[in-house]
Amino acid sequence: MEQDQPESQSVILSDRVKINGTVLPLEVTGDGKLRWTDEGQRSLTLEKEVLGFSVDGSRIKIKAVVEKGGGICCVGNGGHLVRKSFVFEPLSEDSLRLWCQKLRDYMDSLGRPKRLFIFMNPFGGKKSAPKIFFEDVKPFLEDADVQFTLLETKYQLHAKEVVRTLDLSKYDGIVCVSGDGILVEVVNGLLEREDWRGAIKMPLGMIPAGTGNGMAKSLLDAVGQPCAASNAIFSVIRGHKRSLDVATILQGETRFFSVLMLAWGLVADIDIESEKYRWMGSARIDFYGLQRILQLRCYSGHISFVPAPGFENYGEPASYSDESTTRENPGQEQALQFQHHGYQGPNVELEKLDWRTISGPFVSIWLHNVPWGGEETMAAPNAKFSDGYLDLIAIKDIPKLSLLSLMTQLNKGNHVKSPHVLYLKVKAFVLEPGPRVDDAAKEGIIDSDGEVLARGNGTYNCDQKALMVYNKLQITVDQGLATLFSPI
Predict the structure, then answer these.
(1) How far apart are the C-alpha atoms of 139 and 392, rounded to whole Å?
(2) Is 340 exposed, middle or buried (0-12, 13-18, 19+ CB in 10 A)?
(3) Residue 89, phi-psi category: left (phi > 0), alpha (psi -120 to 50), beta (remainder)
(4) Which long-range contacts (CB under 8 A, 24 or more apart) does 37-42 make?
(5) What is the per-residue pLDDT for 69?
(6) Alpha-carbon distance 76 to 70, whole Å?
(7) Which DSSP string do the residues of 23-66 spell out, in sequence order?
(8) At what angle do helices 266-273 and 283-294 cross, to 10 degrees?
(9) Looking at 4-13, 311-320, 419-428, which range is the least confident one?
(10) Other C-beta atoms within 10 Å of 330: how many?
């Protein structure tokens, strides 16, 4: 007796159709495979390889994606994706209607987003976002029949302002065609809304189009895909989601919500001071990084942290103190107007946790939420999107040649294996930054997600306002608070 086929593999429609002028059998199965014979057995997986379909007269055009240089049925896990069509012609009007119905029913069952709000930052990186959107993103959306509203950001914090009042019920997701900065603005805008609990569940998508594309790189690299706009937008269209930890950085009553990283010392100095070479694109980081290593700075200060299980031996025992900064920042007033209505950070009794502390001087303190800080910087190879911890990378004493060697290993994450690097996971963190060791009149920069949180005395553009002051701040993590469109 023949066993029944599993429902997922059963044929839900089988017919003879015309393909390239030849009548051939074509079938679609319960698990969404479109199969036909044309110089051998061929198939397309509707969920993994198809954007959508359209009808042109008596023909049905399947709009698929393939790896660049390949043909239909050539999607693997390692190449840039391009669009390609497969056309077939049912032999009757009834057959045409039936094929359209079955294909539409299956595509609708996938729960893909149908309406997106898209931010495009025309100023980021090499100002390539408009070209990337119109050449790489828009055609994919049109093939997938995804409706979208496009907004071009005009100034810093524009996206944050828009998101605070955006009618989220009209959209299935928000997409950023930019570097990481616009994503950070969107997250902060969502969390400053009165309805933040529902708002932060809005899925967020990243299309790499800036200097730092750490989030897009982290998402795509996790499945072995290149950090390319076509791969990123296909991930959005497919509609798979994953949770993302959000860190709350607190100083007094001022909050900043971080999804990528916080840096103080070498990394912050390179990230922010290299802005003067922004015209170089991502090469500015390497160029200015070399300068900073050759003229290395060390900073006094202290860090305290709650280690994840397995990292309890780092540092010395300490107790939590909730003393906050006493220096007032005139730039905080406007931000506080919104923050009192929104998310206040995770509800954690920090004084009851087991704290550890390490004293400086430090060359660099780096906290990371995801593995990649940029397309060429795997800052925290063990970081997870939603494990509830931040990865801490700390450097104290290190010879310049060792540091230079270490920096060349950032693209593979091997720097964390250096004996000069402390690498651990933390649940909560307190930074008490001090002045430079070589010149106590000069302080440092605290950078989060590519934006300056605080500028100390004597720093680059120190006359510009920042959200916080160069003083003690604390960081706590809310596990899986935000949601990202993801390849898997």
Answers:
(1) 40
(2) exposed
(3) beta
(4) 42/72, 42/73
(5) 60
(6) 10
(7) EEEEEEETTSEEEEESSSEEEEEHHHHEEEEEEETTEEEEEEEE
(8) 130
(9) 4-13
(10) 7
pLDDT band at 42 (very low <50, low <70, confident <90, very high): confident
Residue recorded with tokens 């043909």: 71
Contact predicate 30/7, CB 8 Å: yes
Tell me the C-alpha distance between 195 and 135, whole Å.
36
Nearest to 234 by CA among 25, 369, 84, 401: 84
For 49-81, b/e burial (b = at least 16 CB within 10 A) is bbbbbeeeeeebebbbbbbeeeebbebeeebeb
Predicted confidence band at 39 (pLDDT cuts at 50, 70, 90)? confident
Q: Which two tokens stand for residue 149?
A: 């509203």
Exposure of 236 in the CB half-sphere (CA atoms within 13 A): 34
Query: With 0-12 CB in 10 A as exposed, 13-18 as middle and 19+ as buried, what is 102?
Result: middle
SS3 for 21? Answer: coil
Q: Where are the beta strands (DSSP E) in 282-420?
A: 299-307, 316-318, 355-359, 364-368, 390-395
Copy the structure tokens of residue 283. Answer: 């090469």
Q: Is the pLDDT of residue 1 over 60?
A: no
The Cα–Cα gap between 371 and 311 comes to 19
Q: Locate 25 and state its tokens.
A: 């059998």
Which pLDDT belongs to residue 454?
95
Distance CA 186, CA 454 (A): 21
Characterize the bridge pairing of strands 59-67 and 50-56: antiparallel
Write down the pLDDT at residue 3.
Answer: 39
Told to judge if 180 belongs to the known catalytic residues of this protein, a careful annotator would answer yes
Strand-by-strand arrangement of the 50-56 sheet:
41-45, 33-37, 22-29, 11-19, 81-90, 59-67, 50-56
Query: What DSSP designation does 333 have?
Result: H
> How far lies 403's CA from each of 31, 135, 441, in Å?
52, 40, 25
For residue 70 the two structure tokens come to 């390949």
In the predicted model, is pLDDT for residue 322 greater than 80? no
Of 436, 426, 48, nearest to 262 by C-alpha is 426
What is this structure's pTM? Answer: 0.90
Task: Please tell me whether residue 238 adopts helix, strand or coil conformation.
Answer: helix
**Choice among 136, 180, 269, 271 that is catalytic:** 180
d(CA 209, CA 217): 11
